Amino acid sequence: MTTTLESPSAASLLAWYDRHHRDLPWRVSPPMASRGVKPDPYRIWLSEVMLQQTTVPAVKSYFAKFLERWPTVNDLAAAPNDDVMAAWAGLGYYARARNLKKCAEAVAAEHGGCFPDTEDGLRTLPGIGDYTAAAVAAIAFNRQAAVMDGNVERVISRLYAISTPLPAAKPLMRQKVALLTPADRPGDFAQAMMDLGATICTPKRPVCSLCPFNGACQALAAHDPERFPVKAAKKDKPIRQGAAFVAVNDEGEIFLRRRVESGLLGGMTEVPTTGWTARIDGETGMEAAPFPAEWQQAGTVTHVFTHFELRLSIWRAKSVSQNDNHDGWWEPVTNLEEQALPTVMKKAIAQAIPNAFAKARIPEKSGKRESGTNL
Under which EC number(s) is this enzyme classified (predicted)? Predict the structure, then answer.
């Protein structure tokens, strides 16, 4: 028996969104819009950058902290780089923070503090690619742009039963999203697709009975929605080795230094480590220490990056002299939360000094919005 499917309808999705939208701190919901509230491009852009490779629950506190410290794009543009990197620490994918600052500076200096209102204009800004340009254009400026994050990929792949594996399927998916995106309320449509993927069309056990597209979904008609999206076989992540050196002086200060601006964890604060990268191992022994001290082994930590797994041997030294300049500085352990320490460095310090972050939770990255190459 052949099942006749409906044509997918943006109107049915928008009707569902009007009733079931998520209330998010950066979002102008349908009730708010009906009262005349307009989207703030700065908030939309900030949230979209934060949400790349990170979940909504993890982003909310960071979003609130950034808005409190830097309420406008001009405020962020004027902020010291170190302050921005420190505020970002824990969100991961630190190229985003560097590009965030550069983009804010460009908007302030070249556009009078106003974001361009088209995809093409937005793509000229540092750190803004196709996805972010489409999202900001649609949500902030109501442009008819095809917005496709991981949630939208899942919805559209099931709706049309797209069997081509990702990432090769992305151009076809984007074409389908573009055809479905309405001229009226394109920003709400984009957010509705995201909400649908996040709450109904989930990776496992999608609640198809509640989906506004269930009469048009080809994957549901084939009784196999969880098959989609089809993904290419994952390659095993290489395992890299390295060492980290945690030195403490008699004043209870820890030796820190700043990484170079470019590359992996660029511009972030670290304890001294060896020259590991995504492609090569670093030294793991005491002979690689940054300066002489009574170094003792303090175990190992593991941290998973996008493209590789890192295993760090941790070395600890106490009562270290602070008279010599080693291209770094001594920071009180009680001030560590104010430093731009990425999660892997927090792990290394906590391994060597178990109580260093007694009052803080070391956050983990989770979820996925867009893939990135610079961490």
Answer: 3.2.2.31
Residues designated as active site: 48
Residue written as token pair 């908030």: 43
Query: 112-160: per-residue pLDDT in tens?
Result: 999 999 999 999 999 999 999 999 999 999 999 999 999 999 999 999 9
Confidence at residue 338, expressed as pLDDT on a 0 to 100 scale: 86
All structural domains of the chain with their residue ranges: 10-227, 239-352
Return the minimum-mean-pLDDT range out of 30-44, 198-212, 263-277. 263-277
What is the residue-averaged pLDDT of the chain?
A: 91
The pLDDT of 283-305, averaged and rounded, is 94
Tell me the CATH architecture of domain 239-352.
Alpha-Beta Complex (3.90)
Q: What does the pLDDT read at residue 372?
A: 30
pTM exceeding the 0.85 threshold for the entire prediction:
no
10-227 CATH pick, 3.10.20.90, 3.40.50.10190, 1.10.340.30, 3.90.650.10 = 1.10.340.30
Task: Tell me, yes or no, if the two domains 10-227 and 239-352 fold the same way.
Answer: no
Give the C-alpha separation, 283 to 299, whole Å: 15
- Lateral strand order in the sheet of 239-247: 239-247, 309-317, 296-304
Mean pLDDT of 6-30: 96
Q: Which of 42, 18, 47, 15 is nearest to 32 (CA)?
A: 18
Q: Beta strands 309-317 and 239-247: pairing type?
A: parallel
